Structure prediction request, 716 residues.
Amino acid sequence: MRTPYVWLTLLVAVIAVPSGFYYVNWSKSGEGAGLYSRDWVPEAIFAYWNPDDFYKSVESVKGEFSGEQCVECHAAVSPGIVNDWRKSGHSKPANNQAVVYCSDCHGNNHEDLHLPTPDVCGACHGVQHDQFVDEKRYGFPGHSLAMERAMDAKHFADKPKAEVSACLQCHSVASKCDSCHTRHVFSAAEARRPEACITCHSGPPHPDDETYFHSKHGQLYLTEGENWDWSKPLSKGNYPAPTCAYCHMDNGKQQVADKAIWKFGLKQVNPLTSGNQVRREQWVKLCGDCHEKDWSAGQLRQLDVERKQSWAKLYEAESVLKSLRSDELIQPSAKQRPPYPMDSPDTFLQYQHIGFFEGQASAFYNVSPIERDYFEMWYFDNLKSYKGAAHGDASFVEQGQAEMDASLDSIKQTAERLRSAGEQKLDKDAQGNIWLEGEYTEYNREHN
Amino acid sequence: MINRVLFFCFIVMAFSGHAVSTDNLVLGIFNNEQCLQCHEKTDGDLIGGWRNSAHASSEPVIDCVACHGTEHESVAARARQDQACIECHRGAKGPVVHSYSTSKHGVLMKIQVGQQGWSKPLSMANYRVPGCAYCHMHAGEHDVSISVRHDIMLKSESVQDKMRAVCQDCHSSRYISRLLENGEAMLEIARKKVREADNLIKQAEAKFSEQQLAPVKQQRLKMQQHLLNVALGAGHQSPDYQWWHGQPALDGDLLRIKGFISELPTIE
Prediction:
């Protein structure tokens, strides 16, 4: 009696598993890269942000050259990079090691030059490279998964590529080491300074720069940092106050995300899982370089409280939006707006995506104002408070919470207005197709 | 008195063919008229460049001493530093400065500011990191509007060539071309968002009163800043200004303008 079911299950498995593999491979085989590679074509500039996938050498100069020859020519052609190299450890290696010339990383053949990826650096800097790759097991957000997560974001695949090239500049931290150790000096001392991080770690969703510089730690750095010895490793006793890297890359390890508990504040997490208890102990141990154990543990509990408070507000706003959605009061409706980015099932079952778990991170454009209000409350106000709490900047916690209160109030008022307008049965289509037409909106539909 | 004596020496040196634009040869304190009197003769191109620039026609005029100060000993070194520009260009927290200070150039400038020296000309990669003047007044070009421009990028070949000449001190010509193309494309996308809004507003103006459209106009004003942010982000290479202060901010403006208009009661 059971036999047919066993055979049927086996048959389904035999068909489903290979076709699953085939589908994923097929979807990654387009001109772009990642899960939606068949849906987009890279811009030429992508070669520099993601060299592994997109860099191709050009035949500007023919021939093979030695390291000395590169230096000789480029001192005239592009003196800045040669000046940099002369300052670097590569040109003046310690312990009688060989000089690292241009050609050691870029190749000798000028018609087939390559842009160094972490693997190229890893050939010598093996420990750091292995740690960097190892970071993947801690998941995203993190440095080593940054590029694939950017390219797999639905809004990245959907929006014009010249526009989202802005994303890749920061997410290129996964593809090249010079995001932090800038070329061609590649200085560890430079990467230890907090400024090394702020080109990417700034702005509304991650005001790491502002919150750190406002904190006591940051104030100490701003006052005295010029005089600290940045050649020292990031370990106990070497620095009077911690910097970004001192805490997130303690002892110089490259796994930036290894102690992440609250994961950038983008979704609610349980901070008390066994895994998070281990991370908490790691934090307390690290803070122990300067602070008492109980004090540090107390600070972390404060952050738990801040997160809980923020999520209560965010969920309240989400429920307001979801109830509007179920009463069909969100205008434009899902059918009156451009389809949700890259979601083919959406063409059959269209709905407004609200909150992290429905993928609202990709729905900040072509949506109704009330959804955008919630997006800003979640992405900007919430994260302002979170970063303030995490970095010890009370003013940002206060501001972030106040902004969340104001956003929640305004979302509720807008919801009231939409409800009364809905009851008056205003003609929803009176304004024509303004949500589906227009120069950018149409261009976006044609160019993704 | 001592000033006059020094000024006399200065004039003598100027006419005797000394390179007065080099610092330290001339000591003393000078006012703007005195600067122009000498340098018009010794550095005609430089003064000519300045006269063509917005600095010369602004109110008040941004004259020699505004950037160089009055002490001849340190005039060039002083004006080469970002501080000379920052005072006017919207303060340390304004978008013009903030988009630069969060860029890789800006953060390296911050870290290495004491090591720059400032005694060398602004060319040939004499500085590891370019400050405001290295790009916008490259090789001492005093017409700030022609050296490097964020707003026109690829629109003009002469501007493009000038930018290329500046960036080439450190970057490959292919990289520069790709960045210029990308910057222009990015800016054009931002302009599309603004034009979409303008077109909607134009249509709405025929149907609704000025008072009804007041919140729409308010939102449109924000677009102007967000558009500028994209230009500053592309020009200064600040991803944060290209993106969070730029493109998604414009998306928000556009959909809110649509929201305002679609909620207005239609007048029959």
Observations:
- Residues 51 and 58 of chain B are 11 Å apart (CA to CA).
- The first helix of chain B runs from residue 2 to 15.
- Confidence is low (pLDDT under 50) at residues 9-23 of chain B.
